[in-house]
Each structure stands twice: as structure tokens, then as C-alpha cells.
Amino acid sequence: MTLEYIKKQSISESTPVLEVKELAISYKTRKGEIPAVQGVNFTVGQGETIGLVGESGCGKSTIAFGILDFLGINGRVSGGSIKFMGQELVGQPKSELRKIRGNKISMVYQDPMQALNPSLKIGNQLSEVLTTHNNISKQDAWKKSIAMLERVYMPDAANVMERYPHMISGGQQQRVVIAMAMLNSPSLLIMDEPTTALDVTVEAAVLDLVEDLKKDFNTGIIFITHNLGVVARVSDKLCVMYAGEMVEKGSVQTIFDSPAHPYTRGLLCCVPNLTDDLSFSRLWSIRGRVPHPSERLPDKCIFAPRCDWTISKNIQDKCTTTHPELITISGEHQSRCFLGDQTFAASMTDYARGNREILEESCETENRSSQNITDNIAAIKNIKIYYEHKSGSLKSVFGLEDKQYIKAVDDVSFIVPKGSVLGIVGESGCGKSSLVKGIVGLEKVSGGSAELMGFDLTIPVASRSQTLIRELQMVFQNPDSTLNPSFTVGDQIARPIKRFRGIPAKDIQAEVERLLKAVKLDTYYYNRYPRQLSGGEKQRVGIARALASQPNMVLCDEPVSALDVSVQAAVLNLLNEIKEELGTTLIFIAHDLSVVRFISDYVAVMYLGQIVEFGSVRRIYPPPYHPYTEALLSAVPIPDPNLSRRKFIRLSGDVPSAMNPPTGCRFHTRCPRREMLSDNGKICEQKSPSWQYGKGSHRILCHIPIDELAKFEAVLPLGKGYDI
Asked: In the chain, which residues have pLDDT < 50?
């Protein structure tokens, strides 16, 4: 059937937008043809969202590219059927498929800059989508593009049309890509990790937008993600992928309440939750990794090497000699496990709410020790980090223009108790990374003072003593940018040992192997190169290298934001163990408040270069909140569809420029609470707020009296351990 037939036919509401049956996808390699996806079945109805979840390498994106015929020259659909609006797509000529893509089937990619042309204005890229697939003038296409940008809540849409992609923020870029995908009112929208790289506030706005568009256009959606909180919020049905196979599928409510596959249960256990008991200091991490397609054997359960049920239920022989089929548990709920029908009654709802009664010992938790520390290891006082802004004009070139500065960090003060973890949270551009780079010596400090164990931290790293460099190490967000691809793991961990500790040469390899074991890596990793490691393994090597000099403080800049939930859990557990066993002090940067809650003893909330709230983790999450903290908490996706969030607070606009921050309170341009003040918040525009102090170390930078802030209702039901 041709595209023209698909356009003209009217399908009934009962006809699925997409029907995938026994889908198999393979790639040709030097070792032969390797199956990447096999035996996948699911349907997408009109106005329905199907969530595809699983770790990296499970085949989620491969399915999406198979639907779009974007598999590359060595990939092909090797079996099965893909029906779109009742018509078969497999075997269609590429010319017909090109007419469907971007018209009736659209896709939103994880990185919007990979989907936008940096050399074309946004307006030209949007209007081209309309003129390519429809008989419409450029003028009308331009007007419709502006209307769609307004529909996705883009501020100043007409002017955005005249800008290039690099001239707008990441959240705005993602809205442009969503607008582009929706211009032709597609019947099917595929979203591949569309919120992974976004701040929680922008993520919340994008998820709101997805829900609105689904209702308005009755579009079927495939939502690919590893974030179970996002899935719980936007999806109607859930398909769990592992190693190219669908291991469980059913309604979101059913799977979250009663997961019937050990992999699904493991994924749920890996996720820190804002509603958990604060005493929990350990997450269940799925051991091992997803096998490479060439390592997958057809005559056994693919998940068996990582499964704990094979031990607890004594079914090792069956799992290692027989490949399980999908069995129906009830209704549409299916599981690819020999024990699926026996275990589905073991509800996970209690687990998600803090009752961690899991089937095996590795999920037992330890009580977080209460912090009663008076010895401070670091003191930061009124620190400032300014970047000179050069406009590029002739006046600037000849030094005739007044200097302007980007105030990345502006008058920040805090102390860090020895052996504790300080979490720093905030949106992108708030100054978190600049602050820790200034502390570690990678950025020039413009003012203020900073000390670590009596050492001056305001001097650049090139001028620091060997002792100070040894005592202060850093773990970066992207291990690929910090590991040398030409040296083995052992060589890279050994270097700081040789430089700082003076261990005899004959003992260095043993010390490196000890560190590898400390970060849960086997000794054979000593001779491996970074390219031979997974993302989580690379991050563990980065942590081992940071610990090699035996520092008293380690700075962690978003160390888990790019990791799968199972790997994230393992890294968080590792950092907790390091803190407990070695007494290492950590400063931990993240934008995920649930991760920060799990790992931290103290939390600093940053906005536009300033700390607006500071306190122990027991006092940050219940009221009183700074209005910005309240908005951040409201935006965090919760991995529990049963949990009723008490309020949704959405911030309007983007973070203002750090070069020209607003007068008075820097948050007043976006604050949803300023009208509580008697003058409707005029004081917020005119005067900088002073610190208000609560219990213990808790302090809030706000004009609203702290007694009034304390009357706010908690954003979420809280577990035990908070100081309310």
C-alpha cells in the first residue's frame, strides 16, 4: 500500500496506530549477522502512550529506528511485522517511507542539537517540515510554525523563529524539536529519551507538554527512557526490554504494583525515592551488565547470569538450559520468566513507599548514622567566580568597551563537616560546576576565601602544593573526557599513587588492584583500556583514580547523571561505602533531588550564582521551603503511579542571564510565591533578601517570613527520619 492510501483511509478508533508483531532486527558485522532485537510484540493505540524501558544496550532505540527504517546500511528488519494504521511498513520502498517520516510518524531525539541544523534559522527548519509534506506557501508555513511554538509554550515565539539553535537554551531547543515533530499532526510520535539531559524543572514542563499534545492531537506515543519516574507519570502501558527481548509488558499500574520479572523488580529497587525512609543508605544494584548481542545464547534465559531468583528459588538448571517464553499472568500482563506466575502477587507498592522487604539479602539496608559532627574540614566564605564577557565588537578588541562579567558564583558561603556529604543542587547555569571547579583550582577565584584543612583554595591548581593536590581530588561527569584512551586502567590509577604516595614500585600494582576491588571491579581490569569498558565501569575507574592519592575530600560533578539506573545505584552505594569506610568528605553535585537526598548529609540549593537554601538533609525536604526549592521538589518525577503528588509548581521562563542578574531577589522574576507579601512582591524587586534561620544549620534566603514558609504543605508524603 502507498502513502496516498494511508492518507485517504479513515481508520476506526479501535484500529491501533502501530502494531508490532514478532519484530526481529539484526546487523551485519565482520563476525556475521548478529541479532539485536528479537520476538518483540506491542501495539500503540490512538491517544495512548507506550513506555519502553531498560538499560543501555537493551534494544529500545533500535526498535524506534527499525520503525523509521533508520537502521543504517548494515542493519535490517530480519523478521516480523510493523503495521502503521493497518498497513505493513516492512518491505515498503524507501521513497514511500520518506513520505511518512516527519509527516505521519515523527521522532523527538535525546539531543536536540543532533536534530537541528546549526547553520539554519529555527524558522526555516520548522517551515520546511510543512512545505516538504504539504501544498502550503512559505508564508503560511511560517505562521503555522509560530503558532506551534506558542502551543509548546515557547516565550517570544516570533523572535525565536529568527534565531539559530545555539542562541536558545537546551529546554527551548527541545521544545523546538517537539514543535517540529507535531507540525503535521502525526498519528505516531516516537520520543527517544527526550528529557534525559534536561533540568528537572524543564523536564516537568516538557512532560506536561507531552500530555497536553497527546490529548489535543490524539497521537499515539512511544516513550523511550530509563527513568522510571517519567514512565510512571506519562505512560499508559509499559514494555520492559532486556538484551533485545521484551521481558515484561502490561499496564503501568500493574507492573509497578506487581512486577513479575526479576529484571523489572531490580530496576524498581535501583531508584532512590523522595518518599523513602532517610535511614536507608543502600540501593539494590543489579550485578553484572547487559550482554553484547554476540554473547546472547538462544538456549537459556538471557538474564540468568544477573538473576538472584535462580539462587533463591533453586531453578538454576532450568534457567541455564531453557529459553523462557512470554507467559500471560492476567489480562495483558505478560512476563518472560519461569516464576512469573508465582511471584506476581508480591506487590512492589510497599517497597516504593519505603517498606524494603525484598526477596534476597543484597537488598537489605543499613541505617544512616545521624550526623553529630563539629569538626569542619572546609570553609568557603563569600567566594566569587566571575568570567569576563567579550562582545567581539571593535571597541572590545581595542579595549575601549566597559568590561562586563558573568557572575557564575556570587558571594557564596558554607562550611563542610569532616566525613560528611554536601549535596549541591540547582538548574543548569546556577553555578554548581563553576563553584567546584573554583574549589579544585580549575577556575580562577575572583574574590572571597576558601580553605581546606588550612590550605588556601583560591590559588590556581598550577601553583598549588603537592600536599593540597593530594588532599583534594575530583570525579567528573563524563569519564570519557578525563580518561586517556592510550593508557590502561592500571596505568591511569597508578599515576597518582606514584606521584603522591611514594609506594615502592613493586607494590604499586597490588595497590591499584586493591583500589579496583574497592570500586567493585575485578583485578583483570588492570590491563584493559577505557574503550573496553562500559559507562558505569569507566565512572568507577574515575572514582578509583580520585581515591588513589587517599584524599580527604573528593568533589563529584554530576557523576551519575548519564548512567543507567542500575549502574547509578551501584555508584551511589560505592560512594556511601567510601564515606563510611574511609571517612572521605564529599561535595556531590546533581540536579536530581532524589539522588541528592539519598547520598547527602547536607544540601545547598543554588540559583543564579547564589545559595538560596542550606541545611541538613533532614530539614531541606519538609517545609519550610525556599520557593525555588519547593518548585524543584515539585518537578521531581516519582517512580510510583499510585502516589498522589500534593501539588504541581511550574516555574515560568528561563534562568536569567548571570551577566545581568535581576535586582533585589534574583528569583523574583520566576517566583510563584511573591504575591504572598503585602506589597505583592515589590520588595523582592528592590531589595536583596537577608538570611532567615530555622532549626540547626537550616537557613533560607527569602523575604517571605520563615513562619509563613513553614505553613506550606509538604510537596510529597515524606518517609521517616525527617525533622518536621
From this structure: 1-10, 344-373
Q: Where in the chain is the domain with CATH 3.40.50.300?
A: 1-104+185-206+216-235
What residues pair up with 380 in beta bridges, in sequence order?
414, 450
Q: What share of the chain is helix, strand, coil (3-state, %, to 5)?
A: 35, 20, 45
Q: How far apart are CA 101 and CA 186, in angstroms?
A: 9
Q: What gap in Å lies between CA 92 and CA 69, rounded to an integer?
A: 10
What pLDDT shows up at residue 130? 92
Q: Select from 614, 700, 606, 624 the least CA-distant residue to 661.
A: 606
pTM: 0.85
d(CA 704, CA 630): 14
One-character DSSP codes across 3-62:
HHHHHH----TTS-SEEEEEEEEEEEETTEEEEEEEEEEEEE-TT-EEEEE--TTSSHHH
| Strand, helix or coil for residue 455 | strand
Helix or strand (DSSP H, E) at 114: helix 112-115
Spatial neighbors of 124 by CB under 8 A, at least 6 apart, are: none
Q: Using one digit for the tens of pLDDT, what is the confidence trace for 294-312?
A: 888 888 899 988 887 765 5
CA distance 166 to 184: 25
pLDDT in tens, 557-581: 988 877 788 888 888 988 888 888 8
Q: How far apart are CA 34 and CA 26, in angstroms?
A: 5
Assign residue 718 a region: left if phi > 0, alpha if psi is -120 to 50, beta otherwise? beta
Dihedral over Cα of 625, 628, 629, 631: its sign: positive
What secondary structure letter does DSSP report for 651?
Answer: -
What local confidence, expressed as pLDDT, does residue 398 receive? 61
Cell of 196: 534525559
DSSP string, 419-446: T-EEEEE--TTSSHHHHHHHHHTSS---
1-104+185-206+216-235, superfamily in CATH? Answer: P-loop containing nucleotide triphosphate hydrolases (3.40.50.300)
Sheet holding 18-29, edge to edge: 32-44, 18-29, 75-84, 87-88
Report pLDDT for 155.
Answer: 79
Amino acid identity at 140: D
